[in-house]
Design brief:
The protein is an all-alpha fold. It has 9 helices and no strands. The longest helix is centred in the N-terminal third of the chain and has 10 residues. InterPro entries: Ank_Repeat/CDKN_Inhibitor (IPR050776), Ankyrin_rpt (IPR002110), Ankyrin_rpt-contain_sf (IPR036770).
Length: about 140
């Protein structure tokens, strides 16, 4: 759909940072760019309240890019979710196509920074992620 003026991005970014699901939804429906950046070059997904998987899903459904690195650190949203221990947000990013095997600016994978270490809830998700929807069908077709 039609995108609003670039000046509206900071409103969406602030709403995402607060975890304000209703305001994020309102702004996205109004056409605010889900990949717009603030003055630090960060997108709503990069600054969102990580404990708000519903906000992440909303942004992702509206086309937010889950694989855009932070301009300063090279961290991806999956690194942030893993480090903070939010497995539901991590799973939402993964389902939307975020890869779990891309290093940040210091060469660390999400598993390397996972809260609770490699054997915690986040670490177990990253070591053995569930198959993505549709992935199983493709494998079955290939096996036939």
């Amino acid at each position: 759909g039609r995108r609003l003026a670039a000046g509206t991005a900071p409103f969406l970014i602030r709403a995402a940072a607060r975890g304000d699901h209703e305001e994020v939804r309102r702004l996205l429906q109004a056409g605010v760019d889900p990949n717009g950046t603030n003055r630090f070059g960060r997108t709503p997904l990069q600054v969102m309240m990580l404990g708000s998987p519903r906000v992440a899903e909303l942004l992702l459904r509206h086309g937010a890019d889950p694989s855009r690195p932070d301009p300063r650190t090279g961290c991806l949203p999956v690194h942030d979710a893993a480090r903070a221990g939010f497995v539901e947000t991590l799973a939402a990013l993964h389902r939307a196509g975020a890869r779990l095997d891309i290093p940040d600016g210091r060469g660390r994978l999400p598993l390397d920074v996972a809260a609770g270490g490699p054997n915690g809830v986040v670490g177990r998700y990253l070591r053995d992620p569930p198959p993505l929807p549709g992935a199983g069908e493709a494998a079955e077709k290939a096996a036939r």
